[in-house]
Amino acid sequence: MNPSTPPSKSDSVARCGAAVLTIDLAAVVANWRTLRAQVAPAVCAAVVKADAYGLGALQVAPALARAGCTTFFVALLDEGVALRPYLPGAEIIALLGALPGCEAEHTHHRIVPVLNSLGDIGRWQAYARTTGQRQPAWIHLDTGMNRLGLGADDARRLAAEPERLAGLTLRGWISHLACADQPDHPLSAAQLGRFHQALARLPAGLRSLAGSSGLWRSRAFHLDLVRPGAALYGLNPTPETTNPMHPVITLYSRILQVRTVDTGATVGYGAACVVARPSRIATIAVGYADGALRSLANRGHVFIDRQPASVVGRVSMDLMTIDVTDLPQALVQPGGWVELIGPNRNVDAAAADAGTIGYEILTGLSRRHHRVWLSPATGDQWTS
Amino acid sequence: MNPSTPPSKSDSVARCGAAVLTIDLAAVVANWRTLRAQVAPAVCAAVVKADAYGLGALQVAPALARAGCTTFFVALLDEGVALRPYLPGAEIIALLGALPGCEAEHTHHRIVPVLNSLGDIGRWQAYARTTGQRQPAWIHLDTGMNRLGLGADDARRLAAEPERLAGLTLRGWISHLACADQPDHPLSAAQLGRFHQALARLPAGLRSLAGSSGLWRSRAFHLDLVRPGAALYGLNPTPETTNPMHPVITLYSRILQVRTVDTGATVGYGAACVVARPSRIATIAVGYADGALRSLANRGHVFIDRQPASVVGRVSMDLMTIDVTDLPQALVQPGGWVELIGPNRNVDAAAADAGTIGYEILTGLSRRHHRVWLSPATGDQWTS
């Protein structure tokens, strides 16, 4: 692919798009296969919460299911309900559990809740009793996030009072690493130790601790099931070294206008950029409403045909301005394309520019982009 | 309204919502009427780009049309096409202009482009010639943003070569203030002067310069038409003084869990928060995938029944943790509601916490929230 040409440029549907986001489902599937091979014989699930980290759960999850993935994690019941018709045979698990009053909807759509406290377990048990049927559940043991899950005391209490699990079909136990992205962080080993310690006193079930980063740290973290999300979508799960994953997305935007400005001219809102030399400034059709964070102001970079250009001035809602003074004039013309994310600037680099992490860049991607999903089966494209 | 109770709590559809966003269309309409009165006899249009700043253009724009608004601004053709069926009689104007090859779609859906350069004008004229009909257009004169629009030289050239406008039905002229949110910023008066100077040599048409802030600065900025966006949605157009607008949105999230942690415990990813005293930490069901920016980590505030609680640790994709040690225990229970935006914490304050502006908070609001639009006509609610 010519880096200055998004794959969809030739696509007639994209003709009127001012910004085009491509999502390579073949790359997502390849990433899942890489992770599966890395952790076998452990099960490799997929985390598709937050609309598959912004990339389209209804496109991503079925592609993974066709590749053999059988277990999907969402955050909320509603996310699972939306996916169920596309994943008729899969196990769908809601990490945030069942809200009071929503239990029957979980059963109806077969969305298994993760129970995060003794209170959650008690409510789910009471619900099972009203249905006269055993109800499935995962249980979350907190080992150091202090966010969700049973603490050590509650886990001991659960072990001492096994009748609390009566009426439940226990699918498994999960916990969550706080510092897996930092190699050899002592908290990771401590969390693994606490998880084993708690599980030793509890009934058997699948054990799941690692996500995208944890699964690369040591086989000891694999246990029975891993839950990658970010790595599927091309983020680097091992920030200290080369990214083992394929890139998944590209984001290109159109140049709307190129103007010449004199020294001392101000650019954009708040007159926040004062031009220090005679400059050419290009205005491109992407802004913070499209997920280009305002924190990119005066410090982000984009690329035109492999050549970098700096963001100048504030990022507007629908527009950004870039300094193209040092680029060949022929390269920078209205209607041309600018790479915001692509072969020259991956999501992690874009996030570093914006002072955040790739996860927030992905989940911030807007519905306003013209989206093109590249099919894993045929290389064909379909668009929305 | 009890501040700890979002309006939708009683709504059965919201029962399973983990986070609930309410959008008060009556307040949007009231704000538009306030602005219209402020600028009469100038026309008060409405800016509904970026999905009405994240609040739902398909809900907001028809409510404004019923109240008498006849002119709507979007950024992109696609946004106008989506709105056209809901605004059959309105003028819809696309600020970013017509992309090459998309001209016929503009005509088909009656989306009037803003022409931002001599090149745009030439292309639109060529298109008009192929249709054999006059085509409507607005023209953008840059007066100091250096973002889009004809610069002073191009405006002079256009004045000297009026045949460039042959075949066009000129609807009007727009320009855009860079520093209208700062009272008495000298650039505003300079931009107004440049606008008048350019217009003196150009054919007559409606003149539009001010948006939400500019229209409060001086009657001189009203001209023929104003284009408020942010003020319609409750953001303060006059940051130096009391907000003259009604608040429009509330955002509440559920408490999922409350836990007691000891001194020295770490909370969340990266163990980024070390607890300095025995604490109670509540985990709530909203994260950066929902638009709660990661920059709120360790510095944001939320409210429970009028009492503030600090964000502790990093913001996760689906969750935030807050310190509720100093709040009455009875007030902080799983299933209870936390105010992220509401009577105690408006959008501008939430933005200040996150180091950004209210605009970015609004456009970042997620589709994942359960949304309740409060109807202007009846006070009834409808939900999606």
CATH architecture of the largest domain in chain A: Alpha-Beta Barrel
Helix content bin of chain A: 25-40%
Q: Per the principal axes of the C-alpha atoms, what is the gross shape of chain A?
A: elongated
> Largest interface, by Cβ-Cβ below 8 angstroms: which chains and how many residues each?
A-B, 75 and 75 residues
Low-pLDDT windows of residues of chain A? 1-13, 378-384
Main sheet characteristics of chain A: 9 strands, mixed
CATH superfamily of the largest domain in chain A: Alanine racemase
Care to count the β-strands of chain A?
Answer: 20
Topology:
2 copies of one chain form a homodimer.
Chain A: E1 19-24, H1 25-39, E2 43-44, E3 46-47, H2 49-53, H3 57-67, E4 71-74, H4 77-83, E5 91-94, H5 103-109, E6 111-115, H6 118-131, E7 135-140, H7 152-160, E8 168-174, H8 186-199, E9 206-208, H9 214-217, E10 225-226, E11 249-261, E12 266-267, E13 273-274, E14 279-284, E15 301-304, E16 307-312, E17 320-323, E18 337-341, H10 347-354, H11 358-363, E19 370-374, E20 381-383
Parallel strand pairs in A: 1-19, 2-10, 3-4, 4-5, 5-6, 6-7, 7-8, 8-9
Antiparallel strand pairs in A: 1-11, 11-14, 11-18, 12-13, 14-17, 15-16, 16-17, 19-20
Describe the structure in your own words:
Two copies of one chain form a homodimer. Residues 1-13 and 378-384 of chain A have low confidence and may be disordered. In chain A, helix 1 crosses helix 3. Chain A is of the alpha/beta class. Helices cover 26% and strands 24% of the residues of chain A. In chain A, strands 1, 11, 14, 15, 16, 17, 18, 19 and 20 form a nine-stranded mixed β-sheet that branches. In chain A, 57% of the residues are buried. Chain A has eleven helices and 20 strands. Chain A folds into two domains: 25-233, Alpha-Beta Barrel (TIM Barrel), CATH 3.20.20; 249-383, Beta Barrel (Lyase, Ornithine Decarboxylase, Chain A, domain 1), CATH 2.40.37. In chain A, helix 5 (103-109) links the parallel strand 5 and strand 6 (111-115). Chain A has helices spanning 25-39, 49-53, 57-67, 77-83, 103-109, 118-131, 152-160, 186-199, 214-217, 347-354, 358-363, and strands at 19-24, 43-44, 46-47, 71-74, 91-94, 111-115, 135-140, 168-174, 206-208, 225-226, 249-261, 266-267, 273-274, 279-284, 301-304, 307-312, 320-323, 337-341, 370-374, 381-383. Chains A and B meet through helix 2, helix 4, strand 11, strand 12 and helix 11 of A and helix 2, helix 4, strand 11, strand 12 and helix 11 of B.
